[in-house]
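ok so i was messing around last nite and threw this chain in just to see what happens. nothing serious, just curious
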Amino acid sequence: MDFAAMAQYIPLFQEAMLLTLRIGWVGIFGSVVIGLVVAMIVHYKVSVLTRISRIYIELFRNTPLLIQLFFMYFALPRLGVPISAEACGMLGLALLGGAYMAETFRAGLEAVEPIQTESALALGLTQGQLMRHIVLPQAVTLSIQSFVANVIFLLKETSVFSAISLLDLMFVAKDLIGLYYKTTECLVLLVIFYLIMILPVSILGTYIERRLRYGAFGPAGA
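result:
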């Protein structure tokens, strides 16, 4: 193991990780917005939009992100819609994640007992108050585990961004391997930097899940 070479490569991996994180978190934020809107449409069965939403969910959940990125990056410019590699990565991740987040949020919304919404409406709450104070808090609590799993999944999916010439972690690792043949060193650094990116999310998600469960049910054995 050439530790001197690894030390030289670390700044390149750091820069690539920052780019990966920026694209990844913008895409994840977009996926949350899209997923919430689509989940609301499906849950409340908004006429023709429900069918369109279901088609969107099935299309993006059942095709690889790599193919989606290729279509956006190579086909859209030919159709007169220019798009940069960075914007393509963000949009691709948002659309893919939105399909998964929509199913997560929909499951959370449907898990709320109808008797609770009926009781809230009978007490005079408006639809906005019902959603803000009754439905969403419970739906978020119930779907937090799947939500965190989706976030981790999307962060790992950033590894395909190198296919559209984004200088992400995978691109830097492959480039250095091709230039200097330091395969083991580059792969070790790649694993380390992905752990730096994803492990805190996993730990934080586990902590939040336990806190929400504690708030809902109280301490074990109580």
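not much to say yet. The chain has one domain: 12-216.
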